[in-house]
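Exercise 7. Given the components listed, write out the predicted structure of the assembled complex. Treat all entries as one system.
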Amino acid sequence: MKLQTKINIRFLTVTFLVFTVAGVLFFFALDKVVNQNIHEMLESRKAYIILNLQQNEPITDLLESPDHSIFIKRVEKTGEYKRFSDTLAYDQEEKELIPFRKMTFSAHSGDQHYQVVLLQSLLESEDLQMVIVSFMTGLFGLVLLALFFLNGWLSNKAWNPFFKSLSVLITWKIGENQAVSFDRTGISEFDQLNSTLENMMQKIQADFVNLKEFTENASHEIQTPLAIIKSKLEMVLQDKTLNDQQHQRIHAAFESANRLSKLNEALLLLSKIENRQFVDSSEIDVCKLIQSRLEYLEELFALKQIEVTVRLESQVTFNMNSLLADILINNLLSNALRHNIEKGKITVLSENQKITISNTGREAEMDVSRLFRRFAKQTTTSESNGLGLAIAHEICNNYNLELNYHYLNGMHNMAIKQKS
Amino acid sequence: MIEDEQALCETIVSYLEEEGYRCEQAGTVELGSEKVNLYEYDCMLVDIGLPDGSGLSLIKELKKCHPETGIIIISARNSMDDKISGLDLGADDYLTKPFHLPELNSRIKSLLRRRKFEGKQELIIDKITILPENRQVLVNAEPLQLTRKEFDMLMFFVSNRGRVLSKESIAEHLWGDFADSADSFDFVYSHVKNLRRKLLERTGTDYFQNVYGTGYTFIA
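Answer.
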């Protein structure tokens, strides 16, 4: 849920509740005031009638006013009483039954006793109530609506710096050397947040760069001693006085030094790719590249009696660095060769700007989540350094390409295509 | 030989001296520039990253005073830029550290062949005659049919006669980046076998010697 929606919902719920309670209370208060008003009116008419009765003796036993609002009846002597009640009566003007407040009381003048009934129409006061209530309801509605928009506008304005910071964070990528800066917002909390973020991001960036530089420098510094070890061992291997066992031991050391230096080269390459040190790029005809690589490998395929099927009719071009394209194709093809079986198969297929390299292999389906990770060797063959696919993956990442693996009918498939 | 790493420099120099070259060393651009201006060399091996500057400036200098000297860059930096700018300046070849000594030796030989004899040199090794420019091998004046890789391999062996060549260095010479595949060792084995057989059939001499577990030696 969006922050604004959440705030709006809470805000409006509370406002609505308060208005409803206030509305109900207001209605009852209004009702009470109106009632009181009517009673006062009736009381004042009562006082007037009693005064009139005492001054002018009525001639008949039953008196009725022309507007049918006063009835005076002579009665036997009774006690003092006064009653209020509501009733409906037919109104001549309105031509319908309308509510009346009825006041019945006793009056006397000398020894004459009367019962007086006063009727007061409630129509006007009900109308008044109606008007007030509907006006209030309308007003509440309007206020609610105004609050809704006001709140939206206010929170938009108040949270604007926050959304700005958020968009900066979303576009920020570690490793890409972009300077991070947040504008001054003038709101102390946001400024605090932004400066904390800024410091944090700078620290992360610095750590990241440090780590990368360390890897690079370490690899670099290792290369020279390795070159010395290798060349010294190579010199010793030339010694004619060595016996077979000594030869073998030195060769084993030489072999390991060799592997170490290959590994080191691969790590260096990987960090260079990650650092995006391969700047220039051009349109690479991948089919042509694969074709030439396959020719180069011909003898190795033949030696393992691998059947190579090539279907590269549909042209595929990627915009990338030519050296990296070379390495990418090299790695994938040598992978397909290295993990293949005797008399196995390799298929290279191009279609719809997509290249698929498939091969038979000793292993069953690979774990995709680990496949492209560094040193995530899933086989025990020692000749692979576990970096080939990581490098291929990183190269693809660099050029917005997608490297996908899937296993189908005993074939391991590696597919490269442009990310959509 | 312009290289600041003393131990490496010594090994390379001693390997090359065994091949019969006379070598002089310099560890800095300053020393190197002095030697380059004073003497005339057949070949200069130069490291790019030197303590007092870049080896590239030495290449420029050498090209001015002795343009006929061959230049091989030896660099720890496997960087395309260095390679391209080095070759643009007139260097003949580029080797990335760490490299195999036989590889360096074979590159120097091929460079000198091209420079000194314009490639028109016949290599005569016992009963075998090699015409490097035409990529042709003659035995008793009759051409011997070799595949491309077999020829490269023979040249590598001939350049490093009497040396123990490890499987790794042979594979790397032939395959470069693909050399780390174990299959390439099988390939080396099968191709040495073929080459050996072809030469044995035509010349009656076995020029190859197995060095147990390590590689092969070409003896002639």
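Discussion: The mean pLDDT of chain A is 85. Residues 3-144 of chain A form one domain.
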